[in-house]
Input
Amino acid sequence: MFDTHIHLTEIEHEKLLKLLLRPDFRYISCGTDKKSIMAINELTAKYEHVYGALGIHPSYADDAEALDSIKELIRNNSKLIAIGEAGLDARYADMDRQIHIFEQQIILAEETGLPIIVHNVRTTDRLITLIERHPSPRYIIHGFSGSVETAKRLLLFDTYFGIGRTVTYGDARRLRSALSVIPQDRLLIETDDPYMDREDMENDLRKVLKDLADIVGKDQEEVEYITDRNAEEAFSL
Ligand SMILES: [Zn+2]
Output
């Protein structure tokens, strides 16, 4: 199984070791600020099944100097396979600053050819304006929970959809409809732990997989196989 969005560097030591010792699991650990990207770089060197995405989260949009560190690290470590998590979030202040730092990271994705993992909370129109301006990178939409309409607009570009715990919530009807228009070769699974589940992280990805399998009407083994392949394809592994 491939957890394509997790923050391993934010998980306390004992729980982290349990996750890292699970057989047959692979992870993409996402960065949010300068401190986390340094730690991810080290983690990828230590564990074969851990890959890294380096980025500046919209809640750290003033951490511009992290961008230089990201450039430096990805030049020297081939296990750093994506930019992110980067994006926009209407809950945080200074949207102009967020857009600026996000666009810098999109440009880095263009320059390096790496995909970019996108955080989008109530900023879909702004996000699509930026994607239209920079259509060439591959965009991985993290924690997708949008409508059919939003999915269709995003599918005009090279996009993948990270499906996480929203799929298990009672209010996930909208996502269920969107899943009917998203091709299955564009689906990824993710947990966003420890932010989604601090208690039961060991079973978290399994729950996402089960719920996604129920919705698309396939068995879990098949969805596991499909999403593993998709992750390899999306991140060129
Ligand atoms: Zn995240």
The pocket of zinc ion is lined by residues 5, 7, 30, 85, 192 (CB under 6 Å). The longest strand covers residues 80-89.
